[in-house]
Every structure is written in C-alpha cells, then in structure tokens.
Amino acid sequence: MLKPVFVVDPARCIACMACVASCSVENGVPFTLSKSDPVGWPLTLGLRTWVMWIEREEPRPSRLFMPFLCLHCQDTPCERVCPTGATFKTKEGVVLVDKDKCIGCGYCIIACPYGSRYKVKGGYIEEARRKANLQEASEKLKEAGLEDYIVKPPVPNKWAAAEKAVDKCTLCYHRKESGRWIPACVEVCPTKSRMFGDLDDPNDPVARLVREGKARQLRPDLKTEGLVYYVIP
Amino acid sequence: MENLVLNNVWDFEIAVEMTFLAIASFSIVLAYISFLEGRVRDALVGGALAAGLPILSLIILNLHLLKPEASYLVFTSFQPSSWMPYGASGMTLLIITSAIFTVLVKLNRKGVATHAIGVMASLVGIFVALYTGLLIAYERGIPFWHSGIVPIIALTMGVVGGLSAYSIIRPLDTRMSFSLGVALLILALTYIIHVHISLQGPLASSYSAQVVLGSIAFQVGILIAVIGGILGISTLKIKSRYISVAIAVLGLISILALRHALLASGAWELPIL
Q1: Residue A168's closest CA among A59, A232, A82, A91?
Q2: Directed axis angle between helix B216-234 and helix B203-214, to 10°?
Q3: Reported ipTM
Q4: What is the pLDDT of residues B233-250, one digit of tens each?
Q5: Under an 8 Å CB criterion, which residues of B touch A?
Q6: Backbone phi, psi, residue A195, to 5°
Q7: Greatest extent of chain B over all pairs of C-alpha atoms, in Å
Q8: How many CA atoms lie within 13 A of B130 on its CB side?
Q9: Size of interface A-B (CB pairs under 8 A)
Q10: Do B1 and A103 count as a contact with CB atoms less than 8 A apart?
Q11: Fewer CB near the terminus (10 Å): N or C of chain A?
C-alpha cells in the first residue's frame, strides 16, 4: 500500500496558479475568477488549494510563493470534533469528508489550525457562475463556441465539491481509486514545486526529501503530524 | 501576508443561542430551589423557561447548519470524541427533564419522583452551561478559546442568566438581585483575567485579546456587568422592584455582549514559512 507524502518546495513556485485551476476543474470547486482581493487562505477564498506570497526585506527584497493545501493531519483535530463522523481518515491517512454525512455545522473549520476547510453554501456554485468576470469570460467563450469550458463539471468523483457541506483537499483520492494516484495540482505543476510520493518507497525522491530532513512540517509545535511537508528555504 | 485570521464561522446567532442556554441552564436549578422552598409559581416559571429556551436554541442551531434536515445524524452517528453530540443530548435532556419537572409541579406532586427529576434536570442544566464553554475550549485551533477559563466563564454566564430570569420573576427577593450582582462582578473579573492572560499568550491569542479589548461588545458587556454588579450589591440596602428588573436586564445584555465578543474574536494563527 502506498503511504502518501506530499512535499512543497516554495522556492520553485512561480505562482502560475495552474495547481489552483486544475484542482478546480478536477473537483468542481468554483474557480473564483472575480475575487477582487485574491490574497488569502483557502479558508477565506473558498478553495481547496491556493498560492500565497510572503514578502521579505532581508537579506534582500524578495517574494516567496507558498502553495497551500490541507496538511492531512494524522492527529486530526477536524476528525475529532466532527459530530457525525463525516470527516474520517482513510487507511492511507488521507482526511476526507463524506458529503452525505456532513451537516455543515462548521466545528471542523474552527478546529483546523491550518485554515484548510471552508463551507460550500447552498447556491454557492450558481453564485460563482453569476460573478461579473466569469460572465464576461463566459460570453467570450460562447462567441467562440466554447461555453462548456468555463464551468466544467468535475471529474466523476465521490469527493468532489458539493453544496451544503464542508469542502477540503482530498489529495485527489478518487484518482487512487481509478488506479493512477497523483493529485491534479502535482500533475500540472510546471516547476515541480508540488511533489507527491510514497513514504515507504526507499527509492522515492520525494520521500527522500522527508527522510533527509530537507522537507519539514509546518507548525510542529501543534503535533498534528500531517502528510504534507515543506522544503523550508 | 497576514497569517492572523479572525473566524466568522459562528456568528451572532450562536451567541444568542448560547445566551438562551445560559438562561435555561440555571433557571432550572433555581426552579428546583423554589420548589424546595414551596414557591410553586416560581418553580413553574423557571421550569417552563428551562424547557422552552433550549427549544429556541435548537431551532437557531438547526437554521445555522448547511443541512438542517440531516441534524439527526448528531444522535444516530454519535461521535464520542466531539463535544457537540454531548451538547445536543444535554439540550434535549434539559428540555425533557424540565418539562416533566414542570408538569409534576403543576400537578402538585411533591414526592420522590419530582425531587429526582428536579435534581436530574438541575445537573443537566449545569452541564449545558458548562458545555457552551467546553465546546469552544476543547481544540487548539483557536488559542483564545483553548483555555480552562472559558468553561468557567460559560458557567458564570449560566449563573448570571438564571439569576437574571429569577430577578424578574421574583423582583422583591433581595437574595436574587444581590447574588446576581456578585455573579456579574465575578463574570467581569473572570473575563478580564482571561483577556489579560490571553494578552501574554501565543500570537493568535494575544491578537484575539486585542480585538476583544477594541470591540464595542466587550466594552459594553464589561461596563454593564460592573454597573449591574454594583447595583445588585446595593439592593441589600435599597429594595426596589425596578432596580431588580433593571439589574436583570443588564445581566442579560451583558452575557449576550460578552459571549458575542468571545465568539467573534477567536483568531487562527495560520502557518507561514
């Protein structure tokens, strides 16, 4: 059995947002084109993944891009507080939400120390379609006979975004079920800033980054022990 | 990049819901004490409040859910690791036991059954008051809430809520208005201690404490609690129906404002490199 490990190397990220777009298309998350202020966390933007940036003055002025997603904690606060058991861990350690069981109380959002979860309210997807920029883009695509491309239905997927439930990254777990497990964001990343591997495979170059201590966990003080690691520059 | 993010998951309506629970929680305790003292009418009013207000709370909670129609899953898929099923069960038990107690009192039954149900309802009431604090104090996500003082504040709010209700029901009973005054001062003091400790705590906790200090809800809540507290203590010397009712109203506004300030100021410190 593959033991998934996800490594992010922020130094390689160029913030092209291909990861965000691919995640949106794969999982039916409304790609919020018309966000007037795109600075924020997945939690505040209503997305499963996002690229944030950090500006530094020292040692020289620079901007570091930081891709962000659910860290898939193994000591899992969101699972612990879920009152209906909708949030659960698979045998590989991937944290998922059973949309049928989720009642949308928001307790898991509060418990998550990483801002990786958000509510998909009723009418949210329709509302996203009505947004000004999206409508403008839709009209242009319609003129070109490509109207189906702007809001594509998700890849058939039990874990796709659904209204009236809490949503989060699944590491594209549905791809594992189809026999080819590599998250959509990793697949499209042009600079290999996002990497996915098997922690139990001694020859896996991604797992080696973790074993050699080059990739570490964010906020180890919280002891949540996630599947996602960062190469700290 | 800003990594301190204020939560807006549980809004004002949850503060209202928890305030109803606070009033109900100790209304049943005082209803049972009234029953022991032979004050049947007061016991009936307190019992009715304790049975009715949690129903309103459950309605508000349900409206807040994305899928109210599936809320039964909290009971049928009971998750022992989450506080929410215990809270929902507590509220339901409070409704049932308080209703039975009220009916027994109304039927003038003074036997063991009434006492047993009265004690049980009182214990459930105390748990419900505590629960509104335990719910948010449990997890580490929001450090401002993750504190042992938060359940104590919730319990004190329950005491204030119940005493406020009884200061209206029994406005000439100095014990009620005096106790309410003391409870309000304890609430203000405990809350200030919590904010003070939070200021020294982790970044998100200290940020939340600063947000609280700047919020109108906190300023009004504390001011009202202190004024109500002083007025309450003064009722030992000045006995007035109007002052008692005024203190009760101040008490109710204060717990609502302070609860809202607590909920609205919880912040995460999201990780950055």
Answers
A1: A82
A2: 70
A3: 0.93
A4: 999 888 889 999 999 999
A5: 1-2, 5, 7, 9-10, 64-68, 70-71, 73-74, 77, 79, 81-85, 88, 135-136, 138-142, 266, 268-273
A6: -130, 150
A7: 68
A8: 10
A9: 116
A10: no
A11: N
